[in-house]
Amino acid sequence: MKLPQYSQLFLSLPPASSSSQLAESQVKDAIQSLQQAAHSDNDSPHHEQYTITLTTPMFGGGVIAGQVDPVAPVRASSVRGHLRFWWRATRGAVYTNVAELAQREAEVFGHTANSSPFSIWVEHKDELAEIKPKIHEYKNEILGIPPYLFQFTQDGKGTKWYGLEKYAFILHIKWSPHFFEYDKQDDVEHQWQLRIKPQYIEQMKQWQCDLRAALWAWINFGGVGARTRKGCGSLYSESFSPSSEDCKNKYKLQKWFNQQQKDFNVCLLPAGEYRPWPTLRSEFYTKFDSFSQRNRKIWNILIEDYKKFRQQRPITKQYCSKKKRNINKFGRSYWPEADSIRAAFKTAYWKHDRPTHYFSQSNTPVIAYPRAELGMPINFEFRINDPEREPKDFVPQKQGKCEPDRTQLKPKGKERLASPLILKSLAFSPDEGVALIAVLNHPPHGQLCLTQPGICEDIEWLPNIPLHYPKSPLNYKAPDLTETAYTSALQAYVEKAKEAKFCPITCTPQ
C-alpha cells in the first residue's frame, strides 16, 4: 500500500529533550501514529468519498464520441469539468463579471499558475457495471429509451445504441496535506489527531462549501455522459440527494431546497436576471405522482411531452395499401421555422410556396425562429426533396422550384448553444424520484445564421415578438379570456407544464 504524505507529522512533533535527536519514546509514538493514519486514511478529515449511482442510462462520455468507455466510464477529468460548470451556475452567480469569476474558480479548482487544493479520483465498482451494446427498434418499447433524444444509425437489423446502466462508482476527494497538521491528544497515549492548520481554517471552510455546492448541483441537476440536460446519465447520492420524505409533497421539497441553498450558500437568480455565463434559476417545477415514481418512467414521460411540444403539427389517419392498415400522415408544422427558411432562401415546393402562418392582427407572414431558444444547432430536413418521398405531381422542370436543401440553424459565430431546459427525474433513491423541470438563465443571444452547403445566411432573432397566429404553439388565454401569445418558447413550455399540474417551487434568497 502506498503511504500518504505525512511529512507534517515530524514537523509538528514537540521538541525532544535532546537537541540532536528525538527521544526514543517520541519516535515510537510517531511510527505508531503513522501506521494508524495509513490504515485509516479514508476516514481522515482530508479525505472524502461519495458513492454515486446512475438512475438513467448513460450515453457517450468515452474516448470515442457517442460511446461509453468500457474501461473507465466516468473519468476524474470529466467530473472536475462538471463540477466547474455547476460551481459557476450556483456559487459563481454571486460574481457579476468574468474576471472575478475566473479568479475565484482558479483558487478552488486550480489553474496553470496554481494547483487545486484538492485532488479527485474515481473508483469503479465493477461488480455493478453492465456495459453492452443493445438493439433498439422504433417498434420495440421494452427498453424504455425515448428515441426522440438520439440520432440512430440503421444497420439493417435494427438500431444500435451503446449505453450504460446499473452502474455505481465512488468519487474520492482528497485535500492537500499541506493544509493539515498532527496534534497530540493529551488525554490519550500514543494518539495523534489530524487537524487543519489554524491559518487555513477559514479558507478551508470556503473551499469545502464551494466544492460541496458544486457536488450538490451536479448530482441533482446534472449527470454524466451526453445529453444530461435531457435526463441521460442522471445521478443519485445519499449524501446530496433528497430523501423520500423530502419528496412527499411540494412544501417538504421546497423546505429541502431552501435548506440546501442555505447550507451550501448557493446563489440562484430569478428569471430575467443574467450573468455572462449560465446560472441556475431560482424556480423549479415538480410533479408528484404516486403512480409513476420510477426514474425510468418519469424520464420517458418528460421526454415524450417535450417531443409533443416541439413537434406540434396536424396528424391524420391514412390507409396504406402496402401495410394494409391506417398510418399517421403528418401535416405542415405549426411552428414557423420551416416557412421562415423557405422565405430566407426564396425556394419552396409549389404547394408550400405560401406561408401557412400569418400574424392575427397585421396579416403578415410569420418569420421567426422561436425554437432556437431551446438549443442549437437545429437541423431541418425538407423531405420533399427525396425522390422516394416526392408526390406524383411534383415535376421540377415544370414548376422550376424545389424545397430548400438540408439547413442548419445555429448562433452566429458559434457551433452550438446548449439548451437552457433541464428535464429529469430528481432521484430520492437509485430507482425512484419525482419529475423535475429546471431552467438555466442563459445570456440573451442576438443574431443567428442559416447554413446550407456553401451558403451562410445571417438572420435576426427577435424573441420579444408575441407569436400570435392560429394554432400557434405559443398561444394562451389571458386572464380576461382574450387569446394572445408568449414571446418565448421556453416560457410557453414552462407555462404549459404548470397547466399539466407541475408545481412551481421557488428558492428564497438567503
How many separate helices?
Answer: 10
How many distinct beta strands?
A: 23
Largest sheet: 5 strands, antiparallel
What class would the helix/strand composition place it in?
Answer: alpha+beta
**Fraction of residues in β-strands:** 15-25%
* Cα Rg: 28 Å
Question: In words, what does this structure look like?
Answer:
The chain has 510 residues and is of the alpha+beta class. The chain is built from ten helices and 23 strands. Strands 11, 12, 17, 18 and 23 form a five-stranded antiparallel beta sheet that branches. Helix 3 crosses helix 5.
Short recap of the structure:
The protein has 510 residues and is an alpha+beta fold. 24% of the residues lie in helices and 23% in strands.
Characteristic key phrases:
510 residues; alpha+beta; 5-stranded antiparallel beta sheet; 4-stranded antiparallel beta sheet; 10 helices; 24% helix; elongated
Secondary structure elements and pairings:
Layout: H1 7-11, H2 24-39, E1 47-54, E2 58-59, H3 76-89, H4 98-109, E3 118-124, E4 130-136, E5 153-154, E6 159-165, E7 168-175, E8 180-184, E9 192-196, H5 201-221, E10 235-236, H6 250-263, E11 279-280, E12 283-287, H7 295-310, E13 315-320, E14 325-330, H8 337-345, E15 378-380, H9 396-399, E16 407-411, E17 421-427, E18 433-441, E19 447-452, E20 455-460, E21 475-477, E22 483-485, H10 489-499, E23 503-506
Antiparallel strand pairs: 1-7, 1-10, 2-6, 3-7, 4-6, 5-6, 8-9, 11-18, 12-18, 12-23, 13-14, 15-16, 16-19, 17-18, 19-20, 21-22
Helix pairs in contact: 3-5
